[in-house]
Design goal:
Length: 174
């Protein structure tokens, strides 16, 4: 069994119009949402064996807020190829993971993250309606696939175990 955590970066800022899209940071709402998501991960025992994170500023910053809650001990790779990746590219990247890894978290961008989640999910599952409607910033989809090796991962092979949006965590506000 393999577990995939697909996390879309938190809400980014459009305040500085001179910044390249790749360099946009989180806005205030995004920073709050990322911090709440970090607390959610800890409260639910979510600790991936590896993190693959886009090297864009907003994904790195999202990861930083998560790490304040989950710590920095999880091996993390920053990959520019996750930025603007298509679902098929993300699937290929997952298929290349070491079979010894039981789980992975990908921190990336839409539309690739949403399309990958929808591609992998076989039968809907908890939260599928919300996910199909919109995969908002800061949301995480938790998928499980009954496979022994990542190279076996294919469309419609995963189950959606949960889909959590930042607004679902309102009860967790400080």
């Amino acid at each position: 069994m393999k577990t995939i955590y697909l996390l879309r970066h938190a809400k980014s800022s459009w305040k500085d119009a001179t910044l390249d899209d790749f360099d946009r940071p989180l806005n205030k709402r995004g920073r709050r949402a990322a911090a709440r998501m970090g607390k959610y991960l800890v409260a639910n025992g979510i600790e991936p064996a590896q993190i693959l994170c886009s090297s864009a500023e907003r994904t790195r910053e999202t990861l930083g807020y998560l790490q304040k809650a989950i710590g920095t001990s999880i091996p993390t790779r920053f990959e520019k190829g996750i930025y603007e990746a298509e679902a098929s590219d993300l699937l290929s990247r997952l298929r290349g993971l070491s079979e010894v890894l039981p789980s992975v978290m990908v921190i990336g961008h839409n539309p690739g993250m949403e399309r990958l989640a929808l591609m992998l999910v076989a039968d809907g599952g908890a939260g599928a309606t919300h996910m199909a409607d919109k995969f908002p910033t800061g949301a995480v989809a938790v998928l499980s696939a009954d496979i022994d090796a990542w190279e076996q991962l294919a469309p419609e092979m995963a189950r959606l175990d949960s889909f959590v949006r930042p607004r679902d965590l309102d009860a967790c506000k400080d």
